[in-house]
Design brief:
Elements (H helix, E strand, L loop, with lengths): L1 H19 L10 E2 L5 H6 L3 E7 L4 H20 L6 E7 L4 H6 L4 E2 L1 E6 L2 E2 L10 H11 L4 E3 L15 E6 L5 H12 L5 E6 L13 E5 L10 E2 L7 H12 L3 E3 L5 H6 L4 E6 L4 H14 L8 E6 L4 H6 L9 E5 L4 E3 L11 H10 L2 H8 L34 E2 L6
Parallel strand pairs: 1-3, 2-3, 7-9, 8-9, 12-14, 13-14
Antiparallel strand pairs: 2-5, 4-17, 5-6, 8-10, 10-11, 13-15, 15-16
GO cellular component, one term: endoplasmic reticulum-Golgi intermediate compartment
Pfam families: Thioredoxin (PF00085), Thioredoxin_6 (PF13848)
Protein name: Thioredoxin domain-containing protein
């Protein structure tokens, strides 16, 4: 009985080692992933870079040799098992995987870090060198170490920051912190101090993690994490809530990503130096429109960089700040910026979008306010067309799918 138990234990150890260091067999190009090997691959590698493609898609065929070349370069740069894998999924054959990852266009490039799918897709340059540099960037240490508390005084006040104070690097709490930082490095800046550099901020043996908001752009205050630092999911949820704000900035770099979310935009166009309007706008959204966050994307935009949408609204830099809705069909201007400070005005603006009032009034003038019979005369004017929908996924870059194609 004892011999059998030893053999059984030996077998279990072998299986566990295989699982922890599992990496698909070496071959040239990206690794084909199927329903049989994808879960093992995702769970046992720090980073998995996925190419979802279809054989019939022209853009997929253009990308295939480039992605295969990048896989070879990455394998040469990072030969150790468990670091990184470039994998490819044939979505026609692996329809369940395509559905699981909500693939709506080909090719789609996604990242999985430590078994967790990143919300942000890869949307950068499509060359073997660019893919390699991207992977190198992803595998960099996401946390910057400070040597004294004075170093924290020079941090960028326009960035959202997570700061950890630990006794030493080999604490299990720090390992959890590092993994969360790796997954959320695109959303926040992460900083850490050890030993003497951090001892003034926490009792010995009791590490602390603190959120520092972008104080130059918001009225938020510092907040300390009160949960378990050994619980990855609990810490990740808390940091994600802090690092992904209710009101986000739209740029030309993230416009495609935001547009693809499919929600109308409520946008504050501001002068680059006008931080007070940004602060007040964010505070009002958080106080009055939290229940609308599932229906609309709250955004701020540099009015100088986004001069084209302003021109469509008949406005210029001299008119900033202004607020507008982009419904992906039309754009609608909030009549007076100062009305933002009147409770209920912004909420009513959104309600007028939902019930069609904004569109009606562009064509027929204000809705009747009395019981008198009024004749609506359609005007030749129409609300400005959406400009941000043109920043969505391009037909010259993807094969776009309808929902019933997968």
């Amino acid at each position: 009985m004892r011999a059998w138990n030893l053999k059984q234990c030996y077998y279990i150890v072998i299986v566990m080692v295989f699982y922890v260091f599992y990496q698909p067999a070496d071959s040239s190009g990206a690794v084909p992933l199927t329903s049989e090997n994808i879960d093992m691959t995702l769970a046992s590698n720090e980073l998995v870079f996925l190419n979802f493609y279809a054989e019939w898609c022209r853009f997929s065929n253009l990308l295939a040799p480039i992605f295969n070349e990048a896989a070879d370069k990455v394998r040469e740069a990072f030969p150790d098992a468990g670091r990184v894998v470039l994998g490819k999924v044939d979505c026609d054959k692996e329809t369940s995987i395509a559905s699981r990852f909500h693939i709506t266009k080909y090719p789609t490039l996604k990242i999985v870090r430590n078994g967790q799918l990143s919300k942000r897709e890869y949307r950068g340059q499509r060359s073997a060198e660019a893919f390699l540099e991207f992977v190198k960037k992803q595998l960099e240490d996401p946390i910057k170490e400070f040597s004294s508390l004075k170093d924290l005084e020079t941090l960028d006040s326009k960035k959202r920051i997570i700061i950890g104070y630990f006794d030493r690097r080999d604490q299990p709490e720090y390992d959890t912190f590092r993994k969360v930082a790796s997954n959320l490095k695109d959303e926040c800046q992460f900083h850490v101090g050890f030993g003497d550099a951090a001892q003034a901020m926490h009792p010995p043996g009791h590490p602390i993690i603190v959120f520092r908001p972008d104080v130059a752009l918001s009225h938020e205050n510092d907040e300390t994490f009160t949960g378990s630092l050994k619980n990855f999911d609990e810490l990740k949820i808390w940091i994600q809530e802090k690092c992904v704000p209710l009101v986000r900035e739209i740029t030309f770099e993230n416009a495609e990503e935001l547009t693809e979310e499919g929600l109308p935009f409520l946008i504050l166009f501001h002068h680059p130096d006008d931080t007070n309007s940004i602060k007040d706008y964010k505070a009002i959204i958080e106080q009055q429109l939290m229940d609308e966050k599932q229906n609309v994307n709250f955004l701020t935009a540099d009015g100088k960089r986004f001069a084209h949408p302003l021109h469509h609204l008949g406005k210029s830099e001299d008119d900033l700040p202004i607020i507008a809705i982009d419904s992906f069909r039309h754009m609608y201007l909030f009549p007076k910026f100062k009305d933002m400070y009147t409770p209920g005005k912004l909420k009513q603006f959104l309600q007028d979008l939902y019930n069609g009032k904004l569109h009606r009034e562009y064509h027929y003038g204000p809705d009747p306010v009395t019981n008198e019979i009024q004749i609506d005369v359609a005007s030749n004017t129409a609300p400005p067309e959406s400009t941000f929908k043109k920043l969505g996924p391009s037909k010259n870059r993807y094969t776009l799918l309808t929902k019933d194609e997968l």
